[in-house]
Model the fold of this input.
Amino acid sequence: MAGAGKTPELTHFRDGLPRMVDVSGKASTLRTATAEGWVRLPPEARAALEAGTNPKGDPLTVARLAGLAGSKRTADLVLLCHPIPVTGADVQVTLEEEGVHVVATVRTTAPTGVEMEALTAVTVASLNVYDMLKAASKAIEVTGIRLLAKTGGKSGDYRAPGV
Amino acid sequence: MAGAGKTPELTHFRDGLPRMVDVSGKASTLRTATAEGWVRLPPEARAALEAGTNPKGDPLTVARLAGLAGSKRTADLVLLCHPIPVTGADVQVTLEEEGVHVVATVRTTAPTGVEMEALTAVTVASLNVYDMLKAASKAIEVTGIRLLAKTGGKSGDYRAPGV
Amino acid sequence: MAGAGKTPELTHFRDGLPRMVDVSGKASTLRTATAEGWVRLPPEARAALEAGTNPKGDPLTVARLAGLAGSKRTADLVLLCHPIPVTGADVQVTLEEEGVHVVATVRTTAPTGVEMEALTAVTVASLNVYDMLKAASKAIEVTGIRLLAKTGGKSGDYRAPGV
Amino acid sequence: MAGAGKTPELTHFRDGLPRMVDVSGKASTLRTATAEGWVRLPPEARAALEAGTNPKGDPLTVARLAGLAGSKRTADLVLLCHPIPVTGADVQVTLEEEGVHVVATVRTTAPTGVEMEALTAVTVASLNVYDMLKAASKAIEVTGIRLLAKTGGKSGDYRAPGV
Amino acid sequence: MAGAGKTPELTHFRDGLPRMVDVSGKASTLRTATAEGWVRLPPEARAALEAGTNPKGDPLTVARLAGLAGSKRTADLVLLCHPIPVTGADVQVTLEEEGVHVVATVRTTAPTGVEMEALTAVTVASLNVYDMLKAASKAIEVTGIRLLAKTGGKSGDYRAPGV
Amino acid sequence: MAGAGKTPELTHFRDGLPRMVDVSGKASTLRTATAEGWVRLPPEARAALEAGTNPKGDPLTVARLAGLAGSKRTADLVLLCHPIPVTGADVQVTLEEEGVHVVATVRTTAPTGVEMEALTAVTVASLNVYDMLKAASKAIEVTGIRLLAKTGGKSGDYRAPGV
Done:
């Protein structure tokens, strides 16, 4: 199913890698990150969502809560990610013309950023939308997962082009 | 950042939902699912990957293992998903022209399918590619996460169009 | 705060205990369990719930989903409990005259029962109701957690008196 | 089993809820919380506990350790709870005239309180008492789970009436 | 601290590895595994254990329960391990002349064995003995972790030499 | 398999134990810990490792990542351990004359040390080496797990004899 994969030579990597980057010396400061993603719905899945007759319940509510809970599991899933004490999280899951839109904002006071926590929240919320609607269609697609903005940290603030 | 979200009336849903669908009466049979996804790399991220000088280690190896481990966390992340005893998993993470390609196949003998396990493996692997390369670029995008094929179960086999 | 606790002599216990009971020889059969519990709400907490103005969101929806997810964490919490592949779960959280009523039914096909899974779902749902409303009152009480009914297994069916 | 549940209109809730409350701006200060609960034992369960012949081992010891471990799982179970670095925990499980009494005290230095951690410790300990004795009786009941006292935080100290 | 490490050429490995071995086609049969390990105690640690005055509590009881609970976390820790529904577990932790002896037996009915579950139980129990006594000595050593015996599965029964 | 175990009288322990030691009053300071362990390989296991033909993949790479991930699970496994926000981790897994050598260094800024996190990383990495090679030999042994050095904290720095 894949083309002829070109895997870079692992021996290029420095001895002793991979490792969890040392952030012991960095100050704990306020950091935020916002990420988004889309769940593209074929017509049958969209109809099931709009009709409100989905046999497992409301996909948007489940996804919102799953995304909030998922942000707390980031360090379990991302192998080299530091465990971060999330101090606030907000996940919006709305039905738009183009599909289900997921936007997550995560906040912390920590020595490292929360981009991965926001992206994990978006991803987990999207997987839950998929799970809730997969009986209606097998052609659902999760797409466009990206960082919209971040603040705090030595690399400074960031805003995605056009945001 | 979102448009005017249109949330369907929750009151449409039947009383007592959401719930975890009852599969107690279904037979445990062999089931497989294959899913894919893409991590789009801006030039700096691609250069860091190809140069093999990434300060955290090799993204493809980390992603492959994280995806395998992630498939076992599906029921923790997808709130209404049944816990499934995965009996085999295979995650390929390769560098292609269009970006990093993730393909995951999961197998089980269970009363319900493993689509969510395959999709979770792809998603978690993709998040790990992102994490490994995020120091090189903040414009990485995870996209095209979809089911390629499934076998087993009463809904029969499925193959995505063109696969 | 406690009275004079009377702890039984530990040395009465047989050598080698505690242990996880061996159920290897038991057949995997259909088993169900239903449990209930109550969250007693002081007037301010009840008012916050009924007004729908709770700053964290709707307690009943959150509790229902948390209970469903919680049933899958039973073996993590109950140290000597066997891990069980839950095949169905249903958690109802309703506001009644006497408080918030939680009723959970869990199903499995396994060599041992799911009483603890149903009780864990009730308990976790109740803790989430508490958490959602604790800003309104510190005098909320979780109470009356008990098994209502079970079916399957060699100990036979059970129905609580008056149920 | 339940009466005619009266669920408040979800549409009362503000857009975008539920969410994890933002405590980023709050100072990390010393906070403690003490909670209690009771496990009511029918005569056969009490006899099994007092005789020390329970086939799975000593319920009080298992419950005490499970409660301590459970306090660390709070953010996994309570969907909108912040992850908190618990800095001390103490769980007492004693046999009293009225049943098994569980009292848990949890401490932290954090921007938010540990009421939920203390209540989770009590609840998990109680579930473990239940599990250890359920072979002796199916009519065990967990009851009276409430906050006894808390210190620290902007909402000030609290002590339950009569404590 | 290490000598000149000799890492084998990763490129020797077949494309697409690592992977979780496919056991979908294997029958679910009864399997058991017994493993052991030792915790060597310097005199101060042994004295603290024998005096029963350890400030955190009894190391042997805590270790026994932690080992039982740990056997259920195997698939979380061992990345390519299949999740197994453990149907029985027994962990003995005793003080001997040579140190603390940990022996764990795990049983399942599954398509693959439980050697890793028994070894994980031993390892986790040993880490808990260490943690309970580390205030008394920093020179505790965990050693001699090995498989004593296994039964079931196509590779047949095994018994360590001299056991 | 065990000799006549001599379990110390539990009644020696002070009332209310075990407990998670209160470190609320201790300052958060930089702390590091380094631990090591060995996996002894019988000839067939060593040959499989050196030939690079192991059917599950490369044991050293898997072990390194599993150890890094494992360090984040310490508080889940060690019942009375405080949850610690690890700020850096480094796990080396190399093939030496005497076997596979695992060395883990963990860093944090916290009120308590990370000895258990470093030891858990070593242990989990070792279990993964075992799992990857267990098809080649059932006589693999994990041994010599000990603390090499620690810095920070009121008990001062430590270096194992001869390190």
